[in-house]
């Protein structure tokens, strides 16, 4: 099983200490009641994964770990590969671990390249990554100098992927993933930066999500919001039918102008749109580490500017805002 004791000890003497009033019981309930049918298989892959101390670790430009020459045998590399493949599909990455290239569905490094230039310095900051997936971006946040990166994502496969990567990064304690949704967090008011990337359009109540994000920030803290947008004015919001690009749980896709207004309505200040970028089939695609359908299968084969349902094809915007 996953042991969260290191995280509890880490936050016990920090501004997050009051989280310990609720978090251990939440995670204890999760351990007992909410396990996926394949969780035992996934956790075995994590437990059998060796903890390796890399000779070279690069989290600033990528997530890359290298061992000293001859430190890992060919058989050990093959074993690590087998355990990593047991944790497929890999959606967020890529990871470069001891010569193993996990070519994930998403080129999350491209998203980070679009986001990172617009951030306040992460050096020494405590950051929260909501809907963090496998934790790829948390490692990049640590590489950018974050003191502590906390990710939340209820998908148990992502937790196991994160813990497997952590073992291959030498057991690094600067990032932690908790199997929770944002609605399970109390108003902590303790994070210097909060990231919500690829989450807002999955929320039935987007303004409630923005208020939840705001409640996690310190006064003067920074929100980094990345989400789907459509072209239009401040009144334009797309409400898809049953599916959008084959995704069932897509509720509201606003224009960037509407999104700015939403953030201001929720009390954020200094709201800026810093990037708008169409999602391409080079950024999200099928790979040998994610072999099911991907973006190319979700677009109109006769018109790639539209989804297979006839909606505008995915375009993503990055907005930066502050809590007063």
UniProtKB/TrEMBL annotation:
Residues reported in the UniProt entry to bind carboxy-S-adenosyl-L-methionine: 92, 106, 111, 131, 153-155, 182-183, 197, 201, 316
Gene Ontology terms for molecular function: methyltransferase activity; transferase activity, transferring alkyl or aryl (other than methyl) groups
InterPro entries: CmoB (IPR010017), Mo5U34_MeTrfas-like (IPR027555), SAM-dependent_MTases_sf (IPR029063)
Domain of life according to the entry: Bacteria
Catalysed reaction, written as an equation: carboxy-S-adenosyl-L-methionine + 5-hydroxyuridine(34) in tRNA = 5-carboxymethoxyuridine(34) in tRNA + S-adenosyl-L-homocysteine + H(+)
Keyword list, A-Z: Methyltransferase, Transferase, tRNA processing
Entry's Gene Ontology BP terms: methylation; tRNA wobble uridine modification
Tagged with keyword tRNA processing: yes
Keyword Translocase: no
Name assigned to this protein: tRNA U34 carboxymethyltransferase
Native source organism of the sequence: Leminorella richardii
């Amino acid at each position: 099983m996953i042991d969260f004791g290191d995280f509890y000890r880490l936050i016990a003497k920090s501004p997050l200490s009051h989280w310990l009033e609720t978090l251990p019981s939440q995670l204890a309930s999760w351990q007992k009641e909410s396990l996926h049918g394949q969780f035992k298989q996934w956790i075995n892959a994590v437990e059998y994964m060796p903890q390796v101390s890399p000779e070279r670790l690069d989290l600033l430009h990528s997530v890359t770990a290298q061992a000293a020459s001859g430190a890992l045998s060919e058989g050990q590399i093959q074993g690590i590969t087998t355990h990593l493949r047991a944790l497929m599909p890999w959606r967020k990455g890529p990871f470069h671990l001891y010569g193993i290239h996990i070519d994930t569905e998403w080129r999350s490094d491209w998203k980070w390249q679009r986001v990172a230039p617009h951030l306040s310095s992460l050096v020494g900051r405590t950051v929260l990554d909501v809907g963090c997936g496998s934790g790829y971006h948390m490692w990049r946040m640590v590489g950018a100098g974050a003191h502590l990166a906390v990710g939340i994502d209820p998908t148990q496969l992502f937790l196991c992927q994160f813990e497997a990567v952590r073992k291959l990064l030498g057991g690094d304690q600067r990032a932690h993933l908790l199997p929770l949704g944002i609605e399970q967090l109390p108003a902590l008011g303790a994070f210097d930066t909060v990231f919500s990337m690829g989450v807002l359009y999955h929320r039935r109540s987007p303004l409630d999500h923005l208020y939840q994000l705001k409640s996690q920030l310190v006064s003067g803290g920074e929100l980094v919001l990345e989400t789907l947008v459509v072209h239009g004015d401040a009144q334009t919001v797309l409400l898809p039918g049953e599916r959008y690009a084959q995704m069932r749980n897509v509720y509201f896709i606003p224009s960037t102008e509407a999104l700015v207004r939403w953030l201001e309505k929720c009390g954020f200040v200094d709201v800026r749109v810093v990037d708008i970028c169409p999602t391409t089939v080079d950024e999200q695609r099928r790979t040998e580490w994610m072999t099911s359908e991907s973006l190319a299968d979700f677009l109109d084969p006769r018109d790639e500017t539209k989804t297979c349902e006839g909606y505008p094809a995915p375009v993503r915007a990055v907005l930066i805002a502050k809590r007063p």
